[in-house]
Design brief:
- The protein has one domain.
- The chain has a 5-stranded antiparallel sheet with strand order 1-2-7-6-5, with helices on one face.
- The chain is of the alpha+beta class and about 130 residues long.
Amino acid sequence: MSTSVEELGKLVNLTEHPSSVVWRKRTLGAANSSVPGPTDWQLEAVLTFDQAHAQQLIEQAKKSESPRDIGSLETVDWLPTETQQYFHQDVGSSKYKPAGEIYSASPFVKSPLTQGYLVRLGDTPNFFLVLRTQ
């Protein structure tokens, strides 16, 4: 887990620098799997912007089609306490999904992280970003 905006900026496009971030990388595939493969990985981040930048980000993200389905997390323990309330357990599952408006992650895409989604957490300036290799 990291709180470095600078390190995150090396992995994703940050046209506006968030006031704070909490992020992690995790491997998706196992050594013996082909989809996702053993070298595929995912970046998960909570980004906090001031209200003006949050609104600009929403307007930019609305220009691309929003994903219909988003993934889930095994745990939310690593997330900031104030954002954990926006993650709800899937029915009949131990996994968590973010609750909020879903947007395209296209403003943040930077190769090799080309697929993902962005969720505004409630009516806050906090966003949950997921980008993965494919």
